[in-house]
Amino acid sequence: MAEEQHQEVHRSLKTRHLSMIALGGSIGTGLFVASGSAISTAGPGGALLAYVGIGIMVYFLMTSLGEMATYLPVSGSFSTYATKFVDPALGFAMGWNYWFNWAITLAVDISTAAIVMQFWLPDIPGWVFSLIALVLIFMINALSVRSFGETEYWLSLIKVVTVLIFLVVGVLTIFGIMGGHATGLENFSYKKAPFVGGIPTILSVFVVAGFSFQGTELIGITAGESATPEKSIPAAIKQVFWRIILFYVLAIFVIAAIIPYTSKDLLGSSATDIAISPFTLVFKRAGLAAAASVMNAVILTSVLSAANSGMYASTRMLYSLSLQGYAPKTFGRVNRRGIPIMALLGTTVIGLLTFLSSMFGERIYIFLVSASGLTGFIAWLGIAISHLRFRRAFVKQGHQLSELRYHAKWFPFGPLFAFLLCLIVIVGQDIHSFATLDWQAIGVTYMSIPLFIVLYVYYKIRYRTKMIPLDQVDLSQSRHDD
């Protein structure tokens, strides 16, 4: 029965959908608002170094994921790969970890949508907007995978066009063609710039940059519903690398050149700070009066895009967990339109409950958001480990690399570099709290790690799983998650 239903997941996503989803997943409030705090903390040089470093790591991770996803395109993506190539306990822990991350992120996004809407309509209660956003996202995902892909394509396109306009306006402002005063590169040598605060400070900005890039791994999830994964995934990865460097690195450069790192206006990090978003400030500097309102509209599309992606990713992960026997069988059901409807309903309920906790139990909400904090980095670590094991097993079992439809660049440097940098970023998340032995802060910051370990150990002890020997790794190319 499950097999028949799995066949009904429709492969309707085209290359343009996948490229935009991967790109749109990484352009959000992290770039539009929080990028300013990165410059303020580590100076222009420190912020650029962090975003370039994480950007390169993300590219290598995408090539690792691309090699596995073109070989075995499944909705469960890295959870399935960890199960097949490493240890079922790792697959179990990674799947639930990732589902939890996106279900909580969904609640955060619908809360943020309300904050953004209150910029224009301050007299209407925020929960009204959140409820409308949740219903809208549910409907888009319940219609068909094509409606999800199409919505995500256009929402992402708005973000991309905004960044391009911003870059043009920013460059014209730097040279004094707009805004009257040419800043040139004077802010790169202003006071302590370009590097402020030394290595610990730059390391803390790596974390901000890492959060900004989370969502690019959605390529792996969408592979299970791509019409032509062997063509779409390599094309999407190639485009994403250049666009990440173009959008993120150039955007950070433009902001740093126009606004000095000492400016208090760079301290904003959430949607409530739209009036002092670096993008808003640069547009205002160039003489665009309606900048705040326009950027608010763009941030609204950005938040809805993130919620849309979050709903899709968590639904498909829950569906895949069910097919692998890691979640109740009911979540593996698919309707006639190819939608895992029970998994969608389950995720929506958790998103709604988490959102309600933000209204009635602030402490529970903060706990949940903190608990999901490092889950994205844990997923990235899992991708790197799975790829190292996949490639070693592939060679050990007598396969030729020419059999692979897509080759990850610079193997094994890519996954090893990603693994080490992820570990450094996770450990360096809150070095200050370790220095002052602030155990409460340490507990909140690193909560995701013990939660992941509990899931892993529970499954390991209950089912007595072992790491799969390389010569016994299942390399069959069945397109089923189970």
TrEMBL record:
Q: What is its main location?
A: membrane
Give the subcellular location.
Membrane
Q: How does it sit in the membrane?
A: Multi-pass membrane protein
What InterPro entries does this protein's entry cite?
Answer: AA-permease/SLC12A_dom, Amino_acid_permease_CS, APC_YAT
Q: What are the TM regions of this chain, as residue ranges?
A: 20-39, 99-121, 127-145, 157-178, 198-219, 240-261, 286-307, 339-358, 364-390, 410-427, 439-459
Lineage top rank: taxon: Bacteria
Limits of the Amino acid permease/ SLC12A domain: 17-466
Q: What is this protein called?
A: Amino acid permease
- Output the Pfam families linked to this UniProt entry: AA_permease
**Which N-terminal residues, if any, form the signal peptide?**
none
Q: Which UniProt keywords apply?
A: Amino-acid transport, Membrane, Transmembrane, Transmembrane helix, Transport
Q: Which PANTHER family match?
A: AMINO ACID PERMEASE (PTHR43341), GENERAL AMINO-ACID PERMEASE GAP1 (PTHR43341:SF1)
The beginning of the lineage is: Bacteria, Bacillati, Bacillota, Bacilli, Lactobacillales
| Record keyword Glycosyltransferase present | no
